[in-house]
């Protein structure tokens, strides 16, 4: 790759079929750690504190990460993410403002990272909610 000044190479299996693509980045990352460039999407936090007792948590966040970060007890089940846990508990895709308690978690469904205020109305802190996910944990 280096001698021919190629940015990527095709990986070919024993039958001559293409098994994948290898890039210079793929070769360097195991040696120097993860490399970021202008094309990588900026990672936003998956859990943001809204106030003293509430968190805005992205539904894609791993359940074990939620347990550890918030120090709460959540049941084990056939799910990996908080969204999977909530979908399992609701039994359907929740409507905005619909609430559920699972273990030590009280959750209210919300859309587009807009956490409801204490009365269930508008957003509590729009800047924090803009940066995080789809579920609010209390």
Jot down its keywords:
138 residues; alpha+beta; CBS domain Like; Uridine Diphospho-n-acetylenolpyruvylglucosamine Reductase, domain 3; 2 domains; 4 helices; 7 strands; 21% strand
Report what the structure shows.
This protein is of the alpha+beta class and 138 residues long. The chain folds into 2 domains: 37 residues, CBS domain Like, CATH 3.90.1280.20; 91 residues, Uridine Diphospho-n-acetylenolpyruvylglucosamine Reductase, domain 3. It has 4 helices and 7 strands. The strands form 2 sheets. A 5-stranded antiparallel sheet has the order 3-4-7-6-5, with helices on one face. Strands 1-2 form a two-stranded antiparallel ribbon. Strand 1 and strand 2 form a beta hairpin. The protein is elongated and about 60 Å long. The N and C termini lie far apart (52 Å). The C terminus is likely disordered.
Low-confidence runs (pLDDT<50, min 5 residues)?
119-138
Basic shape = elongated
**Helical content class:** 10-25%
Widest sheet: strand ordering: 3-4-7-6-5
Structure summary:
Helix content is 22%, strand content 21%.
List the helices and strands and how they pair.
Elements: E1 8-12, E2 18-23, H1 24-32, E3 47-49, E4 55-57, H2 63-70, H3 82-90, E5 99-102, E6 105-109, H4 126-130, E7 135-137
Antiparallel strand pairs: 1-2, 3-4, 4-7, 5-6, 6-7
């Amino acid at each position: 790759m280096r001698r021919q000044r190629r940015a990527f190479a095709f990986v070919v299996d024993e039958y001559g079929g293409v098994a994948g693509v290898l890039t210079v980045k793929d070769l360097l990352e195991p040696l120097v750690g993860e490399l970021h460039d202008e094309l990588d999407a900026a990672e936003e936090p998956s859990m943001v504190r809204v106030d003293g007792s509430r968190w805005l948590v992205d539904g894609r966040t791993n359940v074990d990460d939620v347990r550890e970060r918030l120090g709460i007890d959540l049941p084990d089940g056939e799910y990996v993410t908080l969204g999977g846990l909530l979908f399992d508990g609701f039994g359907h895709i929740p409507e905005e403002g619909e609430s559920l308690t699972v273990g030590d978690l009280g959750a209210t469904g919300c859309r587009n990272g807009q956490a409801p205020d204490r009365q269930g109305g508008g957003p509590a802190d729009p800047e924090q909610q803009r940066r995080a996910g789809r579920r609010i944990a209390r």
